[in-house]
Specification:
Helix content: under 10%
Largest sheet: 7 strands, antiparallel
Radius of gyration: 19 Å
Number of strands: 17
Shape: globular
Structural class: mainly beta
Protein backbone atom coordinates (compact mmCIF):
# COMPACT_ATOMS: atom_id res chain seq x y z
CA UNK A 1 0.00 0.00 0.00
CA UNK A 2 1.26 3.47 -0.87
CA UNK A 3 2.24 5.80 1.93
CA UNK A 4 -0.50 8.14 3.10
CA UNK A 5 -3.34 5.69 2.40
CA UNK A 6 -6.57 6.55 4.23
CA UNK A 7 -9.39 4.12 5.06
CA UNK A 8 -12.69 5.13 6.66
CA UNK A 9 -15.24 2.87 8.37
CA UNK A 10 -18.72 4.19 9.17
CA UNK A 11 -20.75 2.46 11.88
CA UNK A 12 -24.34 2.66 10.68
CA UNK A 13 -25.86 -0.76 11.39
CA UNK A 14 -27.21 -2.36 14.58
CA UNK A 15 -26.21 -5.94 15.38
CA UNK A 16 -27.71 -6.07 18.86
CA UNK A 17 -30.06 -9.02 19.38
CA UNK A 18 -32.75 -6.61 20.65
CA UNK A 19 -32.30 -4.41 17.56
CA UNK A 20 -32.39 -1.17 19.54
CA UNK A 21 -31.70 1.48 16.88
CA UNK A 22 -30.09 4.79 17.77
CA UNK A 23 -32.18 7.92 17.19
CA UNK A 24 -29.44 10.02 15.60
CA UNK A 25 -28.51 10.26 11.93
CA UNK A 26 -26.13 7.68 10.48
CA UNK A 27 -23.29 7.14 10.53
CA UNK A 28 -23.36 7.16 14.32
CA UNK A 29 -19.61 6.62 14.57
CA UNK A 30 -16.58 6.82 12.30
CA UNK A 31 -13.06 5.41 12.54
CA UNK A 32 -10.24 6.34 10.19
CA UNK A 33 -6.99 4.45 9.67
CA UNK A 34 -4.25 6.48 8.00
CA UNK A 35 -0.63 5.74 7.20
CA UNK A 36 1.66 8.23 8.91
CA UNK A 37 4.42 9.20 6.51
CA UNK A 38 6.36 11.62 8.71
CA UNK A 39 7.87 8.95 10.97
CA UNK A 40 10.64 6.45 10.21
CA UNK A 41 8.77 3.31 11.32
CA UNK A 42 5.53 1.95 9.89
CA UNK A 43 2.87 3.77 11.91
CA UNK A 44 -0.88 4.02 11.50
CA UNK A 45 -2.98 6.80 12.96
CA UNK A 46 -6.41 5.75 14.24
CA UNK A 47 -9.01 8.47 14.61
CA UNK A 48 -12.25 7.55 16.44
CA UNK A 49 -15.12 10.04 16.16
CA UNK A 50 -18.68 10.01 17.55
CA UNK A 51 -20.79 11.68 14.86
CA UNK A 52 -24.44 10.75 15.39
CA UNK A 53 -25.08 10.02 19.06
CA UNK A 54 -27.86 11.88 20.86
CA UNK A 55 -28.82 12.75 24.42
CA UNK A 56 -26.68 11.00 27.02
CA UNK A 57 -25.49 8.20 24.71
CA UNK A 58 -21.82 7.30 25.06
CA UNK A 59 -19.36 4.65 23.87
CA UNK A 60 -18.09 2.08 26.35
CA UNK A 61 -16.19 -0.25 23.98
CA UNK A 62 -14.90 0.02 20.42
CA UNK A 63 -13.48 -2.96 18.51
CA UNK A 64 -11.16 -3.36 15.52
CA UNK A 65 -9.59 -6.22 13.62
CA UNK A 66 -6.07 -6.80 12.35
CA UNK A 67 -4.55 -8.64 9.43
CA UNK A 68 -4.47 -12.31 10.60
CA UNK A 69 -0.85 -12.54 9.42
CA UNK A 70 0.11 -10.07 12.18
CA UNK A 71 0.20 -10.45 15.97
CA UNK A 72 -2.17 -7.98 17.66
CA UNK A 73 -0.48 -8.50 21.04
CA UNK A 74 2.74 -7.00 19.58
CA UNK A 75 1.10 -3.69 18.70
CA UNK A 76 2.12 -0.53 20.55
CA UNK A 77 -0.42 2.26 21.12
CA UNK A 78 0.52 5.92 21.59
CA UNK A 79 -2.30 8.23 22.70
CA UNK A 80 -1.97 11.45 20.70
CA UNK A 81 -5.08 13.54 21.30
CA UNK A 82 -8.54 13.39 22.85
CA UNK A 83 -11.46 15.78 23.20
CA UNK A 84 -12.90 14.25 26.36
CA UNK A 85 -9.85 14.01 28.63
CA UNK A 86 -6.30 15.34 28.74
CA UNK A 87 -3.80 12.83 27.26
CA UNK A 88 -1.24 13.71 29.94
CA UNK A 89 -3.74 12.73 32.65
CA UNK A 90 -4.45 9.18 33.75
CA UNK A 91 -6.08 7.72 30.66
CA UNK A 92 -9.64 6.45 31.08
CA UNK A 93 -8.99 4.21 28.08
CA UNK A 94 -7.98 0.57 28.28
CA UNK A 95 -6.59 -1.26 25.24
CA UNK A 96 -6.86 -5.06 25.03
CA UNK A 97 -5.46 -7.22 22.23
CA UNK A 98 -5.73 -10.86 21.30
CA UNK A 99 -6.02 -12.91 18.15
CA UNK A 100 -9.79 -13.31 17.58
CA UNK A 101 -10.43 -13.42 21.33
CA UNK A 102 -12.45 -10.25 22.01
CA UNK A 103 -16.16 -10.87 21.61
CA UNK A 104 -18.54 -8.04 20.71
CA UNK A 105 -21.99 -9.26 21.68
CA UNK A 106 -23.19 -11.66 18.96
CA UNK A 107 -20.93 -10.42 16.19
CA UNK A 108 -18.00 -12.76 16.42
CA UNK A 109 -14.50 -12.08 17.71
CA UNK A 110 -12.23 -9.07 17.23
CA UNK A 111 -8.49 -8.50 17.78
CA UNK A 112 -8.43 -5.07 19.47
CA UNK A 113 -10.71 -3.55 22.10
CA UNK A 114 -10.69 0.04 23.35
CA UNK A 115 -12.58 0.37 26.65
CA UNK A 116 -13.76 3.84 27.68
CA UNK A 117 -14.93 5.45 30.91
CA UNK A 118 -18.48 4.58 31.97
CA UNK A 119 -18.79 6.10 35.46
CA UNK A 120 -17.33 9.61 35.33
CA UNK A 121 -19.69 11.59 33.12
CA UNK A 122 -17.10 14.29 32.34
CA UNK A 123 -14.76 11.69 30.81
CA UNK A 124 -17.28 9.74 28.74
CA UNK A 125 -16.92 9.36 24.97
CA UNK A 126 -20.06 11.20 23.80
CA UNK A 127 -21.35 12.81 20.62
CA UNK A 128 -18.85 15.08 18.90
CA UNK A 129 -15.95 13.61 20.87
CA UNK A 130 -12.88 12.08 19.26
CA UNK A 131 -9.69 10.29 20.23
CA UNK A 132 -6.51 9.71 18.21
CA UNK A 133 -3.96 6.93 18.58
CA UNK A 134 -0.77 6.14 16.71
CA UNK A 135 -0.22 2.40 16.40
CA UNK A 136 3.05 0.70 15.50
CA UNK A 137 4.34 -2.85 15.22
CA UNK A 138 7.97 -3.02 16.42
CA UNK A 139 10.07 -5.16 14.14
CA UNK A 140 7.25 -5.56 11.62
CA UNK A 141 5.39 -3.80 8.84
CA UNK A 142 2.04 -2.09 9.51
CA UNK A 143 -0.30 -0.13 7.24
CA UNK A 144 -3.86 1.21 7.29
CA UNK A 145 -4.95 -1.76 5.14
CA UNK A 146 -4.05 -4.12 8.00
CA UNK A 147 -7.13 -2.90 9.90
CA UNK A 148 -9.51 -3.74 7.03
CA UNK A 149 -10.50 -7.27 8.13
CA UNK A 150 -13.74 -8.79 9.41
CA UNK A 151 -14.49 -10.20 12.82
CA UNK A 152 -14.33 -13.99 12.93
CA UNK A 153 -16.96 -16.64 13.58
CA UNK A 154 -15.21 -18.33 16.51
CA UNK A 155 -12.42 -17.65 18.99
CA UNK A 156 -8.99 -18.06 17.42
CA UNK A 157 -10.40 -18.44 13.91
CA UNK A 158 -8.78 -16.83 10.88
CA UNK A 159 -11.90 -17.13 8.71
CA UNK A 160 -12.70 -13.50 7.88
CA UNK A 161 -15.86 -14.39 6.02
CA UNK A 162 -17.79 -11.12 6.21
CA UNK A 163 -21.21 -12.80 6.38
CA UNK A 164 -22.91 -16.14 6.94
CA UNK A 165 -25.74 -17.27 4.66
CA UNK A 166 -28.34 -20.02 4.75
CA UNK A 167 -28.72 -22.54 1.86
CA UNK A 168 -31.09 -20.10 0.13
CA UNK A 169 -28.40 -17.44 0.05
CA UNK A 170 -30.04 -15.17 2.64
CA UNK A 171 -27.63 -13.42 4.99
CA UNK A 172 -28.32 -14.68 8.51
CA UNK A 173 -25.37 -13.13 10.32
CA UNK A 174 -23.04 -10.30 9.40
CA UNK A 175 -19.49 -9.73 10.52
CA UNK A 176 -17.87 -6.33 10.67
CA UNK A 177 -14.46 -4.69 10.41
CA UNK A 178 -15.34 -2.56 13.43
CA UNK A 179 -17.98 -2.62 16.15
CA UNK A 180 -18.90 -0.54 19.18
CA UNK A 181 -21.06 -0.73 22.31
CA UNK A 182 -23.21 2.37 22.87
CA UNK A 183 -24.64 2.95 26.34
CA UNK A 184 -27.46 5.06 27.81
CA UNK A 185 -29.72 4.56 24.79
CA UNK A 186 -33.34 5.59 25.23
CA UNK A 187 -35.82 2.93 24.07
CA UNK A 188 -39.37 3.85 25.02
CA UNK A 189 -39.39 4.31 28.78
CA UNK A 190 -36.22 2.24 29.20
CA UNK A 191 -32.55 3.19 29.16
CA UNK A 192 -30.55 0.40 27.57
CA UNK A 193 -27.55 -0.16 25.28
CA UNK A 194 -26.96 -1.39 21.75
CA UNK A 195 -24.18 -2.64 19.46
CA UNK A 196 -23.34 -1.05 16.12
CA UNK A 197 -21.01 -1.90 13.24
CA UNK A 198 -20.05 -0.96 9.68
CA UNK A 199 -22.51 -2.47 7.21
CA UNK A 200 -21.27 -0.88 3.99
CA UNK A 201 -17.61 -1.82 4.02
CA UNK A 202 -14.47 0.29 3.86
CA UNK A 203 -14.32 3.68 2.19
CA UNK A 204 -10.98 4.58 0.58
CA UNK A 205 -10.35 8.31 0.82
CA UNK A 206 -8.07 10.45 -1.31
CA UNK A 207 -7.81 13.00 1.53
CA UNK A 208 -7.98 12.41 5.28
CA UNK A 209 -11.35 12.74 6.97
CA UNK A 210 -11.59 16.06 8.82
CA UNK A 211 -13.53 16.48 12.04
CA UNK A 212 -16.02 19.35 11.55
CA UNK A 213 -14.90 22.59 13.12
CA UNK A 214 -15.76 22.94 16.78
CA UNK A 215 -17.00 26.33 17.88
CA UNK A 216 -15.87 27.57 21.25
CA UNK A 217 -17.50 30.62 22.80
CA UNK A 218 -15.31 32.64 25.14
CA UNK A 219 -16.58 35.53 27.24
CA UNK A 220 -13.86 38.14 27.90
CA UNK A 221 -14.27 40.93 30.43
CA UNK A 222 -13.66 44.37 28.96
CA UNK A 223 -14.03 47.90 30.29
CA UNK A 224 -17.65 48.95 29.75
CA UNK A 225 -19.03 45.46 29.18
CA UNK A 226 -18.45 41.98 27.86
CA UNK A 227 -17.29 41.05 24.38
CA UNK A 228 -18.38 37.78 22.80
CA UNK A 229 -15.65 36.04 20.88
CA UNK A 230 -16.44 33.06 18.73
CA UNK A 231 -13.37 31.00 18.25
CA UNK A 232 -13.42 28.16 15.78
CA UNK A 233 -10.81 25.52 15.58
CA UNK A 234 -10.17 22.44 13.46
CA UNK A 235 -8.63 19.36 15.02
CA UNK A 236 -5.07 19.00 13.87
CA UNK A 237 -2.36 16.49 14.52
CA UNK A 238 1.19 17.71 15.05
CA UNK A 239 2.71 15.20 12.68
CA UNK A 240 -0.05 14.44 10.18
CA UNK A 241 -2.30 17.03 8.54
CA UNK A 242 -5.93 16.01 8.31
CA UNK A 243 -6.80 18.62 5.69
Amino acid sequence: MASGAVLLLELDSVFDSDKVVLAGETPWLRVQAMDVVEVETDTVELLFHATGLTGNEFISEWYLNLNPDLDPTALEFDLVESSFFAPEALSPVGVSTGYSTLKANGNGYFDIEFSFETAATDARFMNGDYIVYEVSLPGGSLSAADFDFYSTQSMGSDANIGAMTNPQGTVIKEFFATGAHVQSVASGEMITSTWVGDADGTIVLTEPYLIPEVSQVWFVGLVGGLALILKCRAVRHARSAWR
